Structures
1.
Amino acid sequence: MKILVCISKTPDTTAKIAFTDNNTKFAETGVQFILNPYDEWYALVRAIEMKEADPSTVLHLINVGGTESDPIIRKALALGGDEAIRVNIDSQDSFYIASQIAEVAKQNNYDLIFTGKETIDYNGSSIGGMVAELLDMPYISLATKFTLEGNSATIIREIEGGEETDVAKLPIVVSCQKGMAEQRIPNMRGIMGARTKPLKVVEPVEADSFTEIQSFELPPAKAGVKMISADNPEELVRLLHEEAKVI
Amino acid sequence: MSILIFIDQSEGQIKKSSFEAASYGAQLAKNLGTTAEGIIMGTVEDDLSSLGKYGLTKIHSVKNEALNNFDDEVFTHIIAEAVKKTDAKVVIFSNNFNGKAVAPRLSVKLKAGLVAGAIALPETSDGFVVKKNVFSGKAFANVSVKTDIKIISLNANAFKAIEGDGVAEVEELQVEIPQARVEVKSVDKVVGEIPLAEAEIVVSGGRGLKGPENWGLVTDLAEVLGAATACSRPVSDSDWRPHHEHVGQTGLAIAPNLYIAIGISGAIQHLAGVNRSKVIVVINKDPEAPFFKAADYGILGDAFEVVPKITEAIKNLK
């Protein structure tokens, strides 16, 4: 059994979002970067649980990014996983990134590829589906539960107003969200061990970029809150009806 | 050329987000001097020609029971065929659960750049640039699509469905239906609930409500408003409410016209899931609750006293 988990570096959930270079670049100064929460809490931890259940499982991690990704890759290795592969390039285009992951995956014949449901910076939710199409594999998106019996996976995925239970034969690609696993904190043994685990750096292959971010914008500032007395909540209803016109 | 819109249905009912996608596609078609057509799969009770109201001139329908269950590979194959047939240059999806599964696949298959989470019509005066949400609703990016065919997934409630009086021509699309590799064993849906992701009004409760036995406060208000109900992370983690109601960074991100937060302090992770709401009302007894800073209207007071009065006032309004 060979599992690949795709991991991304993202700004911390509490990071201040600002832009530089005429609003074309994210302002990284003073920003703490983390392992994308969906990749970490759900995709990676679920894969680690599977390796714990079957120690013969080979668990690889992949990141597409520059050397700035190394700290979050080491953190992921401290949680678990046998080795990491970093494709040495920064890109904001989903197809380009998916092409790099698919290339590495082709060489290693994984049975299972996990991604988080989206990154908290670009919110594309696209890498899993693209990798699946590039590798001609089934794709189950937004999974909340994953169990494996032999070669057959049972997956619960979220749909509008409910859930769907799917069965698919490996190899497959799964995007993971809340419910898959519980967040873990790396222990000292894991952190020490992560230092010596292999982190292979490979150069990117030729691939197209379909899109390009031209500029960023911040939303207009809110006008400020209008406070209404708790003794007169009817006034709120009047304002929502007559001023905001939302009811 | 044409614009092709994927019309998403569930149990024979066309989803509200698809009316928004249709209107968005029709407006884009108008701007580009072309027509907007729809593709729909499965057996649908609704009269498909009525999609003309939203500006679609033609509906390509693949009426086959095998397609009542969504499968991203099968749907990708059929949509790609429809793109060929209609010579579509732009394909529009709703950025919902199914859209997120099928749009990336289609992007690879057609070598078509995808903008997921669009919130406005493309700027087409110089190239093709689409504004989308990034950083979990804290910013926007203007994304240039460089491929011949373009794919856009539109966020819910970002573009209002516009009803006119057109009638669409309905045509059966002749297409081979591949065998699905993923088997759908069961579908469990909460019946009679307004889907949270599409809801125009959402009433949400937090720890301030003290326990699940007090949720009548939230559901009563939601009922008079025709709203969906939601909750904060601690509430779903404590199993006071089902997980699918959790909105926030790790739950669902929503963008209703009106979001009413009762007894929710407004941690930054919660805001990331709701900050795209057009109007935010915060009811909290803690003057230090950070949510007041992100709100449009606030009431500092005890929810147990204030909320029933609001519910009553709305009843009187209607």
2.
Amino acid sequence: MSTMNKRTSLEIFKSVVLALFLREVQTRFGTKKLGYFWAVFDAMFMVLIFAGLKSAVASNSMPGVDFPVYLATSFLAFYLWKKIVSQSIHAFSANKALFAYKQVKPFDTIVTRVLLEILVSSAATLIFVAIGLYIGLDISVKNFNMVMLAVFWLCIFGFGIGLMNAVFAYFYEFYAKLINIVMTPLLFVSAIMYPIDSLPPFIREILLYNPLVHFMEMIHGYYFHSLNTYYVDYEYMIYWTLIPLWIGLFFYKRSEKRILSS
Amino acid sequence: MIELHNVTKYYKTANEKKYILNNVSIVIPSDVNVGILGRNGAGKSTLLRMLGGIDFPNSGIISSPNSFSWPMGLAGGFQGSMSGRQNVKFVCRIYGKSDYEIEQAIEAVREFAEIGDYFDMPIKTYSSGMKSRLSFGLSLVFDFDYLIIDETLSVGDKNFQEKSKKALRKKIENCNVLLVSHSMPVLKELCDVGIVVHKGQIHYCDDIEDAIATYNKINK
């Protein structure tokens, strides 16, 4: 009989994710010392640019909302989602060498990258909060729990899309390029720099097909006292969360062995 | 003990299926060291990968109550951007070792591998000899029932080869080895039984000498 300790699959999963997590932290932040800097810089840069632009061209169109705070919530949430999706897509190939150990499953690498992005984003959020308090912006939250629910939901949404993309992109290089093309304009059509209510109805109708708009509106509606969640369609968000997740899990399960042995 | 039950494994090439194993059923008994022979491309490494649980037969079942190491080969199983030390830590962690055990393992591997400062350099800067030193040293830290070794004993300089063989002889007092090698003296020295992988079949021989003879016949 085996002289090695028998462990349950949950125990193995936990130790693998921990090991992968520490490895990702080391490669992301260890070798390039600027890793920590970029984690915050992305979102910060965007907030400064658009807050500056806005104050240059228009007066405050959202009474009761500090526009930089609006932008900060948008970009932090958007980058969290975007990084989860873009990091997941290459998770398999980046960790390929480690599949030599049978404990390490491709699925674990996605879970690890999602957890890492959540951690990085949380750290960036804390820094934003500190800056907001320091320069005296109104960062009070209308309904903290609902904001957290929206962000958590956004992570699950990103995980589902990320897993699905990772599986398809592993076998079809073209798919990864396609996703890149789709991701680029999202910044401008996801209710990040404006509330959806401020748009002309026919544009609004179209943009509401973008699931990210609903997540952004949900976050904004529960964060700011003077905004609401009138346009948020929870059912639509559930579809966009569950369907990619199901497709991702289904095709992952079918192709796990092929990914491991290729 | 290792049991292969109706195992079929093939790769698809452009025109046909190339069979590595074609409906193979054998039982490898417990407590023997197994030498694996076969020509290049016969499927020795694939067989080792399947035993190590990182490749899978197209049909059939491979079963064993025992624990297997990862296949130690030239390819490594190391993440190039991480240092030797970080890779050792990583492997210890996935096997659920405690922090104290990890510290001990790092010391043991560092001492065995004798790669000096390179221990803290990224693996991608290593030569293939250094990689196998690290890989082999690392495997000695764990108590597997079977060590899966793919050719690694033949790399490295004379001095290290001797050292590895000595360490391996000591290690296989408590475990067994599945060894792919093209060096007949090494096989004769370390293995009790042999299997020859040839044209989709496995020939099991009770004596490593017979296996070598079979292999030589194939090569004629």
